[in-house]
Write a sequence for this structure.
């Protein structure tokens, strides 16, 4: 094999090409590659962080949903309790009102009975006086015999 000037010049040209590429071409390419790698790494990290955030948000949503269900159950129980208390209070109030009405009605009935008895006593005493007048064929003076008529009324 002959080493001549052509081969030597090719080696020098190749070395110059390698030096030029290493000095001027390689650094911008490496910078672009490193920038792209950083962007990809950042994107992957953001994706992973997004997954963790999503898992955390789903966990919080599940907790909030459970809390809301619990709270709604408590509200329903309180509503039912308030409803039953209201019904019981209304029943008690209605019973008290009914008892008051019954007591008032009984008192009114007793007064009516007393008035009816008094009216009957007066009518019977008037009938007794009328009957005695007819029997005796003379007028019986009601004023003169007021004590007697009062006694008769009491007996009836």
């Amino acid at each position: 094999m002959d080493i001549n000037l052509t081969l030597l010049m090719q080696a020098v040209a190749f070395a110059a090409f390698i030096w030029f590429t290493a000095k001027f071409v390689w650094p911008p390419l490496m910078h672009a590659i490193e920038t792209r790698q950083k962007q990809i790494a950042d994107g992957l990290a953001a994706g992973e962080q997004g997954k963790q955030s999503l898992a955390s948000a789903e966990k919080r949503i599940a907790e909030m949903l459970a809390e809301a269900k619990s709270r709604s159950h408590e509200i329903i129980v309180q509503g039912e309790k308030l409803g039953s208390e209201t019904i019981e209070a209304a029943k008690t109030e209605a019973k008290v009102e009914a008892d008051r009405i019954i007591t008032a009605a009984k008192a009114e009935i007793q007064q009516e009975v007393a008035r009816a008895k008094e009216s009957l006593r007066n009518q019977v005493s008037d009938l007794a006086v009328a009957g005695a007048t007819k029997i005796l064929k003379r007028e019986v003076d009601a004023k003169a015999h007021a004590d007697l008529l009062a006694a008769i009324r009491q007996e009836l």
